Amino acid sequence: MTAARSLTTVAELAAAGLLPEEKRPAATAVAERYAVAVTPALAALIDADDPLDPIARQFIPDAAELVTLPEERADPIGDLAHSPVEGIVHRYPDRVLLKAVHVCPVYCRFCFRREMVGPEGLGTLSPGALDTAIAYIAERPEIWEVILTGGDPLVLSPRRLQAIMERLAAIDHVKIVRFHSRVPVVDPERIDAALIEALKASGKTTYVALHANHPREFTAEARAAIARIVDAGMVMISQTVLLRGVNDDAEVLAALMRAFVENRVKPYYLHHPDLAPGTAHFRLSLAEGRALVESLRGRVSGLCQPAYILDIPGGHGKVRADSPAVEEADDGCFRLRDFRGKTHVYPPEEGLAS
Ligand code: SF4
């Protein structure tokens, strides 16, 4: 059954045949805690007869989300520790995140910002907060790149997005604008002429990082939406979260990376899953992740190789998970060296501040 609009409640998922009766009580408890949304495009993609369907696994609430482990934390990558003003995360010297909105077209069950996004989340930046965020960027000549993330910035109306882009256009030292989005695959019709105009309105070199996790997400409609972005002169790169039961398989991962490249999206990030609450059922060990990434090397073209990345819990930035900066220790934990040369234990000990 194809939904006409996004499914956002357990009752709607059930009515669409996407949630078997025995799973509804737990799904109801999950939905009270974390946001739910499945777009019509994704609802149509789910094989409801397959209990292991990798699309359903990403979006349909599951009882396992009710279990939070001691090492999981509300802010797993430490955004708050690096947020000088509302809506800005300034972790690295030459770039900032601009989080204009905390709403998404879909809510991924493994989301690393699941405590911040959703209809009950932090919402959209107020005009005053947006003024302060833009002023923060304008006053710092070292900021070369602005990354719009959130939430999904492509849920903003073209008019609103255009207004933000025009303000960035006036800041000379910002040379690169980057969007991170799920929209081209989960709501491809949204990528229309007005939205494309808005994305380009800064006049800066513009990148769109597409978040996709399984080759089946590349429907004909999604491929057409991606083509509209690339044909308009923007560069596309990928981001994927390595997820148990979705893409933790060498063949699936290879097919996914090839799908990106075939659609003119350069593989960029393969994220090790973060320590978000209620997501342990998605997490692989670092050793398993490294073996999968290694298997890609001999299997697919160099064009298809992403960087395997771990965000160091606590806000210490990213580290290449398959590099010498990540070392397995005798105690079974890993030692991670951040970009400042400081060492961290992974997984972190219980009770470490997020
Ligand atoms: S689209 Fe991104 S921010 Fe939104 S729910 Fe999914 S992972 Fe979280």
What tags apply to this protein structure?
single chain; 354 residues; alpha/beta; 9-stranded mixed sheet; 11 helices; 12 strands; 29% helix; 17% strand; binds iron/sulfur cluster
**Helical/strand content category:** alpha/beta
The number of helices is 11
Count of individual beta strands: 12
Order of helices and strands: HHHHEEHEHEHHEHEHEHEEEEE
Textual characterization of the structure:
The longest helix is centred in the last third of the chain and has 14 residues. Helix 6 runs parallel beside helix 8. This protein has 11 helices and 12 strands. The protein is of the alpha/beta class and 354 residues long. The site of iron/sulfur cluster (SF4) has 10 residues, from loops.
How would you summarize what this structure contains?
The chain is of the alpha/beta class.
List the helices and strands and how they pair.
Elements: H1 10-15, H2 24-33, H3 40-45, H4 54-59, E1 88-92, E2 95-99, H5 127-138, E3 145-149, H6 158-169, E4 176-181, H7 183-186, H8 193-200, E5 205-211, H9 220-231, E6 235-241, H10 250-262, E7 265-271, H11 286-299, E8 307-311, E9 318-320, E10 326-328, E11 334-337, E12 343-346
Parallel strand pairs: 2-3, 3-4, 4-5, 5-6, 6-7, 7-8
Antiparallel strand pairs: 1-2, 8-9, 10-11, 11-12
Helix pairs in contact: 6-8
The structure holds iron/sulfur cluster.
